[in-house]
Amino acid sequence: MNAASNNKTVYLLASGDLRLSANQVCWPAQQQMEAALTEAIRSMGWEVERAHEFDEAAGHGFISSQRQGMEVFRKLDPDRPLIVAEAVWQYSHHVLAGLTTHRAPILTAANWSGQWPGLVGMLNLNGSLTKAGVDYSTLWSIDFQDEYFLSRLKDWLNTGACRHDESHVRSFGGADDAQANEVGSRLAEELLRDKAIMGVFDEGCMGMFNAIIPDHLLHSCGVFKERLSQSALYYETMQTSDDEAREVRKWFDDAGMTFHTGSNHDSDLTEDQILLQCKMYIAAVRIADDFGCNLIGIQYQQGLKDLLPASDLVEGTLNNTSRPPVRSRDGSRVLFEGQAIPHFNEVDECAGLDALMTNRVHAAFGEPVETTLHDLRWGDHDATGSVEEYIWVLLISGAAPPEHFIGGWKGTEGFRQPAMYFPNGGSTVRGISHPGEVVWSRIYVADGLLKMDLGLAKAIELPQEETERRWKETTPPWPIMHAVLKGVSRDQMMARHKSNHIQVAYATSEAKAKQLLQAKAQMAAELGIEVSLCGNVD
After folding, report:
1. pLDDT 10s per residue in the chain (538 long)?
2. For a designed S-S bond to 342, which of 105, 284, 355, 514 qualifies (C-beta 3.0 to 4.6 A apart)?
3. Is 338 exposed, middle or buried (0-12, 13-18, 19+ CB in 10 A)?
C-alpha cells in the first residue's frame, strides 16, 4: 500500500529518552521541530495526526518506555503512513516493536541541529530498523523548507519511499596492497583459531537494538561474549581501597590532566566523584583480567548511573596505551601492562568487534592502536571561513583516549557530566582531536549478516572560536573531533550510515591510512563480514 491512500493523513510520533529529566529539558526543541515538519507536510495537501498526546503530568510528549510504545501502536491503523520525528536522543526499543508490524510506509525524520542528539537518535533508529528488517525511508533538514528535503518528502508522501545518492559506496573485492592482504588474512586466521572474549557489562544500553550482535554472528568471527553484570562492577568498585584510588588520581595529575572541580555534588564535579571513578577503573581492569577478556563494554546508563558516577573517565583511560597501572589484587603483577584495553562505549558490540580488529591491525603495522567510538553528532561549514570543506562534529560523552587529543593527557580536561543524564556526576574526558589521517568504520547487522563500511577522513584543527561555537551548539563537556570525510557528502553519509556511532583511529600518514583500511577490510572479509568501501579510499 502506498502513502497516497488513507485520506492523505499521516501519523506523527516521537520516541524519547527513558530519563524523565532529559525528556523534560528537550521537549521544547521537539515541539519546534514537529511544528516545522507539520507545516511542510500540510503544504503538500496532507494532514498530520499526532499518534500520542502530550503528558501533562510528565511534562513532555515523548513515548518514554517500551510498554507505552506498544500501547500507542495498539491503537493505530497499521495501514496509515507514519513518521517518527526526532529532535532528541531516543530509545529505539520504545517504538521498535510497533514498527516491526506497521504495514504502511515509515519515515524517520530529524532536524539538522547539534543542540540535542536528534540526528544521533534517528541514526540509531535507522540502524535498529535495518537490523530488524523493517523497510523505511529517512530524511533530515535544518528548517524543513529546503528543496532537498521537500522534494523527497513529496516522493515519500506520493509513493511511500524516497531515495538518496549512495554512489560513494562500492563492494570490497580484496586488498590490492600485498602486505595489507597478508596481514589482514593472517589476523583473521589467528582470531578464528585462538578466539577472543568480549566482556559485556549488561547488553542493550539506551535501547540500542542495533548495537547487539547476535551470538551466532559473533561466534563466526571467533569472538565470544562473557556476559558480566554491572552489579559485579559496582561491588568490585566498592571493594577497591581509597589508597589505590588516590594513586590513580595522582597519576592523572602527574600526566597533566586538568579537572574542573567544585563542592556541590548535584552541579559540580567533586573530588569524591573522581575518586569513585578511579576505583571503577581499577575494578574494570581487574574484572577484565579475571575473565580473560580481550575487550570490555560498560552499559553505564540505566542502573549504574544511580549508583556511581559516569564511567567515561574509566572508558577513555582504558582505551589509551598510556594509562595508570593497575596491579592484581595480591599486588604480584601489573595487569595488561603497556597495553590499551579496548573499551566499547555504551556496550555497542558492533563497535567492540570493530575496536578489537582495529587494535590488532594497527598493532601489526606499528601504528597507533587507540580508537574512539564517536557519535555522528552534527556538521556544519566553518563559520570563520578558515576551511572550505564540510566539517562533521564527531562527539561522544567522554569515553575518548587522550592519545587522540592535541597535547595528549596535558590537553585533556575533566568536566562534570550533565546532571540531566548523570545524577551522580563524574568526569568526562574532554579534548580536541589532533589533526591527522583517520580511518573510520562501522560494523552493523543487516539482512541477517554482519556488514562493515569503511572510509578515510582527516581530522583538522579549527580556530578556537569555531571550536567553541561547535561545543556550544552541542555538549561542551564532551570531547570533539573536527572531521572531513573523504569523498562522502553530508547527505550520502546520512543516507548510508546504519548507526549513531562511528569508529575512528589515527594513522601516521595518508599512505599508511590507506594500507590500514585495506588490511582491516581484508581481515573483515576473511571473517565472513560483507565489506563496503565508502568515498575516496584509493
Report:
1. 344 445 899 999 999 999 999 999 999 999 999 999 999 999 999 999 999 999 999 999 999 999 999 999 999 999 999 999 999 999 999 999 999 999 999 999 999 999 999 999 999 999 999 999 999 999 999 999 999 999 999 999 999 999 999 999 999 999 999 999 999 999 999 999 999 999 999 999 999 999 999 999 999 999 999 999 999 999 999 999 999 999 999 999 999 999 999 999 999 999 999 999 999 999 999 999 999 999 999 998 888 999 999 999 999 999 999 999 999 999 999 999 999 999 999 999 999 999 999 999 999 999 999 999 999 999 999 999 999 999 999 999 989 999 999 999 999 999 999 998 999 999 999 999 999 999 999 999 999 999 999 999 999 999 999 999 999 999 999 999 999 999 999 999 999 999 999 999 999 999 999 999 999 999 999 999 999 999 999 8
2. 355
3. exposed
Which residue matches cell numbers 515523548?
62
- Residue 351's H or E segment, with its range, is helix 349-364
The vertex-150 CA angle with 147 and 154, nearest 5°, equals 135
CB atoms within 10 A of CB 524: 26
Helix, strand, coil shares, percent, the chain, to 5: 40, 20, 40
Distance between CA atoms of residues 83 and 26, nearest Å: 19
Cβ contact 203:348 at 8 Å: no
User: Residue 405: what are its φ and ψ, rounded to 5°?
Assistant: -95, 155
CB neighbour class for 469 (10 Å; exposed up to 12, middle 13-18, buried from 19): middle
Grid cell 581509597 in the structure block, residue: 242
All three cell numbers of 412, joined, read: 585533556
Helical axes 93-100 vs 66-74, angle rounded to 10°: 30
Fill in the DSSP letter of residue 480: E
Pairing of strands 436-446, 449-459: antiparallel
Residue 526, amino acid: E
| Cβ 470 vs Cβ 395: under 8 Å | no
Cα distance between residue 500 and residue 321, in whole Å: 26
Residue with cell 561466534: 219
Neighbours of 226 (CB within 10 A): 17
C-alpha cell at 359: 587494535
Q: Both ends of the chain: CA-CA distance in Å?
A: 43
Question: How many DSSP H helices and E strands does the chain contain?
Answer: 15, 18
Whether this model's pTM surpasses 0.85: yes
Kindly report the length of the chain.
538
Instruction: For the chain, give the longest Cα–Cα distance.
Output: 74
Question: Which helix (H) or strand (E) segment is 13 a member of?
Answer: strand 9-13
Residue ranges and CATH numbers for the domains of the chain are 6-159 (3.40.50.10940), 178-534 (3.20.14.10)
